[in-house]
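Ticket #4471: structure export looks truncated?
Reporter: QA, pipeline team
Priority: medium

Steps to reproduce: submit the single chain below to the structure queue and open the exported record.
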Amino acid sequence: MRAFTAARQIMSASVQMLQRLSSIEYHQIESDKHIAETNLRIDEVFRRLDQGAKTKQGLFFEGQIYDAYVFVSDLIKSAQTRIVLVDNYIDESVLTLLDKRDDGVKATLYQTYYAPIVT
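Actual output as written to the record:
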């Protein structure tokens, strides 16, 4: 009888463990699908940027302020329908750059804030 009771407890614990493992596996699969979809969207954005942007280089090093300014200015001027800007430091210079867009081009600005961690 003790062996039967012990076997039943082990089976009961195994069922619970298998259910938890199944749940974790399901969430992992869903997470992988979400990551794959996000990667496809990011690839699409980069593909479209590569087609439309006329870049001479992809990086701007310290001291290349004018090159970066010209690149952003040309990018804004080439916009046809809308501009979405996500920036932590939106100031007057960004608004001045956005004045260079065509009349029918809408601009949406998102400013993100990150609270500093105080220890």
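Status: closed, not a bug. The export was complete when the record was re-opened. Leaving a note from the reviewer for reference: The first helix runs from residue 2 to 52.
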